[in-house]
Design goal:
mainly beta, Immunoglobulin-like, Jelly Rolls, 3 domains, 46% strand, signal
């Protein structure tokens, strides 16, 4: 019922135009249908539009964005108990067997390791050290917090002064998301906390990992820490959490990036984009190349809520509705990984803000615009009508893949006849263009017009109307009046 009402509402606009033209009809107008009539002289009631084609850009510049707001407490966080690399007894007792291989300088052969533990009370922490990383390698750490919405654990990374052996108590990286349960493929959980660093020195370097219970504690709800070291990685590592995201601007035709890889099972690549208030889209498409997707690579988009809670945004066919503000894009793997670069594509789904009818075709050709008494309008002959047009944004960028509904109306046919309306639908091409051909009923010849001249004729026709509208934005529409020709009668010489 709603669909029918919407169509009737739009058709009434055409009728209104028809009535307005009828009221201002000029009797005795001469007919102009000569072969010298050009398209530029032809009258189309809708405005013309010069369509721009949005080009896709390759992203070759990435800039580290500033940390998200509300993380001052993380920057002030320090380790409360001093640790020194020369305290051999403490070091031997600290690391569990699962991480032991990472505690020996230059001898680590294990590239990944996992530790599980609990924190009984709020404010307490678990420390894992020393974690040695060879020169030129990167260290990535992931904390999978307890599956409890009442607990909020953070992850910190510190480095040792390799000359004195003392721990530098200011963290070099931290991940302090607020607990917020999202729906993932493997169930409801909060986003993992991730940190990372690169050993840019010429010697082994040691690190300390801290899991801190910011809110709550439990002896029954375990956390899991996974570590990975990598020798081969892309030039932009490490950017393991949203606080170290790379920013870039999305071009009107979309942007793509092909300079990053996923080098470990816990590698996270983060990007941040800003959606301005003045824009020609409300949805963006986020996708990865098919080869990367087949390996298990994922792309996700997050919005930031209060207390750095990361909300996973829902997608439909890779499309994500976005309002004004900043959004964080995460690329990671749930399966394989290697040093092959993935391609991340981000493309605005341009918003259809205007539709223009820019031409017709029928039995008399595309330039058949006679000047009957109601004005100069296109004439339908032989009961076929092709409607051509274009869909664009408010700033005239072509909108591809927009569904367009075209409705033709001749009110001289009764509703019960089945001949009063004809409809057709089509999707715009990459240039925003559409073309719909309708097979129409015969004209009722409701209007007769005598055309005096050297040879006199009387033409019989109907006034009809046409509407072209964007299917999912029906208020974006264009209307026009058409002559529906029936026949002509010879009236002798003048």
């Amino acid at each position: 019922m709603k669909k029918k009402m919407s169509i009737l509402t739009i058709l009434s606009l055409v009728l209104l135009l028809v009535f307005q033209v009828s009221a201002f009809a000029i009797d005795g107008s001469t007919l102009n249908t000569g072969p010298d009539m050009t398209a530029d002289q032809a009258h189309v009631t809708t405005d013309t539009v010069r369509v721009l084609h949005a080009e896709e850009e390759i992203i070759d510049q990435l800039t580290k964005a500033g940390p998200a707001g509300g993380i001052e407490y993380a920057e002030r966080h320090t380790v409360t108990s001093p640790v020194n690399l020369h305290d051999a007894a403490a070091l031997q007792a600290n690391l569990p067997d699962s991480l032991r291989a990472l505690a020996q300088p230059s001898s680590a052969t294990v590239t990944t390791a996992t530790y599980s533990g609990v924190i009984p009370k709020e404010g307490e922490a678990v420390h894992l050290y020393p974690i040695y990383v060879k020169p030129g390698d990167i260290l990535q750490v992931q904390l999978d917090p307890p599956l409890s919405q009442q607990l909020n654990y953070d992850l910190y990374l510190y480095e040792f002064d390799m000359t004195t052996g003392n721990l530098i108590t200011t963290p070099i990286d931290y991940s302090v998301y607020g607990t917020y349960f999202n729906q993932y493929a493997n169930g409801m959980r909060t986003l993992s906390e991730n940190v990372g660093t690169k050993n840019a020195t010429s010697a082994d370097k040691a690190y300390l990992i801290e899991v801190h219970a910011k809110q709550g504690g439990s002896i029954n709800d375990p956390f899991y820490v996974t570590l990975a070291t990598s020798t081969d990685y892309d030039a932009f590592e490490t950017d393991e959490n949203a606080f170290h995201a790379y920013s870039f601007t999305v071009a009107p035709g979309g942007s793509s990036l092909n300079s990053r890889s996923i080098s470990s099972p816990i590698d996270n690549d983060w990007y941040v984009i800003t959606v301005p208030e003045n824009r020609n889209y409300d949805v963006m498409n986020f996708s990865l190349d098919s080869a990367s997707a087949a390996k298990g690579y994922k792309v996700e988009v997050y919005g930031v809520l209060a207390d750095n809670q990361m909300k996973l945004l829902s997608t439909t066919d890779n499309n994500v509705p976005l309002g004004t503000g900043s959004y964080y894009v995460r690329v990671y793997t749930t399966g394989q990984y290697d040093t092959t670069n993935y391609t991340l594509s981000i493309k605005p789904v341009l918003r259809a803000d205007k539709i223009v009818i820019n031409g017709y075709n029928s039995g008399g050709g595309p330039n058949d615009y006679p000047s009957y008494r109601y004005g100069r309008y296109f004439r339908i002959i032989n009961n076929t009508l092709t409607v051509n047009g274009v869909v664009a944004t408010s700033d005239n960028y072509a909108v591809a893949n927009a569904k367009v509904d075209v409705i033709w109306l001749n009110e001289n046919w009764t509703e019960g006849s089945g001949n009063r309306t004809r409809t057709g639908s089509v999707y715009t091409n990459n240039s925003g263009q559409f073309s719909v051909t309708l097979s129409l009923p015969s004209s009722t010849a409701s209007i007769s017009e005598f055309l005096p001249g050297a040879i006199n004729f009387t033409h019989y026709y109907d006034l009809s109307g046409v509407v072209a509208k964007v299917a999912d934005r029906p208020h974006v529409s264009a209307t026009d009046i058409l002559y529906h020709f029936a026949y002509s009668l010879y009236g002798g010489r003048g």
